[in-house]
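Thread: "does anyone have the structure for this chain?"

Original post by V.I.:
We have the sequence but no experimental structure in hand. Need at least a predicted one for the grant figures.
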Amino acid sequence: MHPSFPESFPEPASRTVPITGGVPATYVRLLFEYLAERGVDAADILAATAPALDTQQVYPAPLWRSMLALAARHLQEPALGLRIGASITPAHLGPLGYVLLASSSVTVALERYMRYQRLVHDVSAVRHYLDGNNVVLEWNNESRAMGLLANQCGLAALVQFARTITATEENAQAFPAAVHFVEAQPDDVAPYVALFRCPVLFSQSATRIIFPAAFLHLALRRPDPALVAMLEQQVQTLFAALPQKDRLEQDIRQQISSHILQGEPALDRIAEKLHISGRTLRRRLEQRGWSFRSLLEDTRQRMAQDYLRDARLTLSEVALLLGYSEQSAFNRAFLRWTGMTPRRWRCACAV
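Reply from O.Q.:
Generated one for you, tokens below.
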């Protein structure tokens, strides 16, 4: 039996979700390499979109989707995305790939992946949370607009990368407990089951990968704090160079940060500060596949992690800065967000 999952990213009023963001060339290279392995000249089938790989380019999300569709049609491979994603290596993620590989634990690697996700796939926002004995990675509604091929590739790449960086690829804890696609079930599900080695469900309310919570505690193959310290500077530089995201999201996060000391910010109060009605703000969020609650929780989590990195702050001070009247309430919230207590998370980051 599978756990029930909250509607954390409500469906927008319209089924048409605008696609924004893009995919870095290091990731797009997966497609070009796969075509070369099949003896196919990318220029022959991608001439109308991207005949050659531009290593300096960030490919707009609609272009990436079109490239995958052209390749799948040419090769007659409905599961093309799975095969491309499964070929991923740390090099396909640039410096971030090696930072994740050299992290001290799965938990720390996951936190870094969440922080720098836009360097991997700057399209659909992802969050993680605990659900019983599982840790869930869940993408927002922009994943619906990307289509099955792109979601195949993204989920396959993440699962394969998780197996690659853990101490043994055959460790059952490195395998998902379940994988959810928002798209309808295809005629042939065998390639999905063969790759993920777990139940794969379709027509779900969100795109998800569900791992056993024990996955968070797996050792990594090559922990190397010195390498991480050196490469993470490059990652931060690349991240800072990305184009700014949706202005509304930035404004809401800023207002949440400003008001959080006064307790939990309310949607209507934030809307007033943005000079719009609460109803308008809610509608604009839904159009983007967001909810105010999910944005509030995610902002609070990011602030918590930033504060915890500052060793000068006590845990009780961090709780107060986040608007919690009691440290126990903060501890429970942080455990729900990350699967770790604030103290343990701070110790893990200090390694």
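V.I.: this helps a lot. The chain has two domains: 22-240, 247-350.
O.Q.: and Strands lie at 22-24, 58-60, 126-131, 134-139, 178-180, 200-201, 207-212.
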